[in-house]
Amino acid sequence: MAPFKRPKISNSSPSRRPEKPLERSRSNTTPALKRLQQMSYLLDSAIAIPGTSYRFGLDPILGVLPGGGDLLTGLLSVYIVVEGARMGLPAATIGRMGFNILIDTLTGLIPVLGDLFDVTWKANSLNVALLEQHLANPEPSRAADKAFAFVVIMALIALVLSIATLSVWVVSQLLGLLR
């Protein structure tokens, strides 16, 4: 297995204005990939910071909402992994995508700092870039890859639901203390 390299994210280059997902010209762009590129762009890069070349998306904004925001963005992130598994990603790539979501979700637990980290981490863009790399140089998938993908996806869903439940419980406990 090759050492882990952070994939290049084509829609957040500081040297020029990022491309929108539909502006990319790729011969291997399927409707599913276009949908994932659009979703990634919306979650990670849709909003420009005026006067800078930096962009962020709805992911850190929705993450501010206790429980529900992290649940929604986490499930959308898992959806990218599900689609990647459907497109035949190998187990190593599914594992990398899961790791990106794990980092994003766990750091999201830290109030304010987690949301600031979310602005820079861009797990969805990283995962779509991994998917694009695979589609550019596909490796044949094996039955073990599909089984591993299933386990990773179920674990990610359990993680996201657990964190959302924990967030709601913490907020309810804090509100109970204020009464």
Automatic annotation (TrEMBL):
Compositionally biased region (Basic and acidic residues): 16-26
Keywords of the record: Membrane, Transmembrane, Transmembrane helix
Spans traversing the lipid bilayer: 147-171
One Pfam family hit: DUF4112
Keyword Cell inner membrane tagged: no
Disordered: annotated segments: 1-29
Name of the protein in question: DUF4112 domain-containing protein
